[in-house]
Design a protein that fits this description.
Structural class: alpha+beta
Strand content: 5-15%
Number of helices: 10
Radius of gyration: 20 Å
Largest sheet: 6 strands, mixed
Distance between the termini: 62 Å
Number of strands: 10
Length: 282
């Protein structure tokens, strides 16, 4: 008996609960784009910010193809993909979730010692720890540990056990680390508030929020020279807030996420942040 009906049934069940799904082919990877979308020639999803099929209705654009639309999941184009699929994938960020993918026993041992208990799902070599909340995705944040949330997909391996916990700062900080043993970029970029004997002038929440929102918008609206725009935006944020202790991990993650949405890699974000700090002598 073909496993396609079972995979499709699982996908429909997940979609009905608000989890965007997609079929994964051999190698547990997404299907390649169709001829119309190859090389992203069709332009892809708007800004690739949200999951869902593009106009071709095929299973295109990797994680961004994930959908909760049952009509799409049962469409002829997707039915053909289910027949070739080996498992169901889902977009954690689209479901408001973050998956900490622990790839070996050492990584699992680290998580048990360092992270709050949450829902866990056994994998072939380790475990998925699933938290409520979204963040930037990043691979190899430490040995054997990947983070899958926005702009990423994970395999569905069952409902798991345990109650969902809120996404902790300990996990958020991993996505902006310069290396497994480094401090988070946010903590490394700032000095304590009130340095030099003066009161921090940016403590008004509205002022800081407006500045971060404007920086996100500047990156998001860049139509060309994205690398340069990201660097200049990081430089502007750090020149205003980098010496007073205002910035937090959450602010830096927002900026990194905006840049990654435009196609920047996590490595480039970290390099641009570090270069901006160096330019300003932070």
């Amino acid at each position: 008996m073909s496993k396609a009906p079972n995979l499709q049934r699982t996908a429909m069940h997940l979609a009905a609960s608000g989890v965007p799904v997609l079929p994964l082919r051999r190698g547990k990877v997404p299907f390649g784009n169709c001829p119309v979308c190859v090389g992203n020639a069709c332009g892809g999803r708007p800004n690739m910010k949200t999951p869902g099929p593009c106009h071709c209705a095929g299973v295109c654009h990797a994680w961004a193809a994930a959908t909760t639309d049952l009509a799409v999941i049962t469409s002829p184009a997707w039915a053909a993909a289910w027949r070739r699929a080996v498992c169901v994938g889902y977009h954690p960020g689209g479901a408001g979730l973050t998956v900490v993918d622990l790839d070996d026993p050492d990584a699992v041992a680290w998580a048990r010692a360092a992270l709050p208990v949450t829902r866990t799902v056994p994998t072939t070599r380790g475990e998925h720890w699933i938290y409520r909340g979204i963040m930037a995705s990043r691979n190899a944040v430490r040995p054997g540990v990947d983070i899958k949330s926005t702009m990423a997909y994970a395999r569905y391996l069952g409902p798991g056990t345990g109650a969902l916990a809120d996404l902790p700062d300990a996990v958020r900080a991993l996505a902006v680390k310069g290396g497994p043993a480094g401090r988070s970029a946010a903590h490394a970029a700032v000095v304590p508030a009130g340095v030099g004997g003066g009161e921090c002038p940016h403590r008004t929440p509205a002022y800081l929020e407006r500045g971060i929102a404007m920086a996100e918008q500047r990156i998001t609206e860049a139509s060309s020279a994205v690398h340069a725009t990201v660097y200049r935006t990081f430089l502007a944020v750090l020149s205003t807030h980098g010496r007073c202790g205002c910035l937090t991990d959450a602010h830096v993650i927002r900026l990194f996420t905006a840049a990654q949405t435009k196609g920047e890699s996590a490595r480039h974000c970290a390099d641009a942040w570090t270069n901006a700090r160096t330019t300003l002598g932070l």
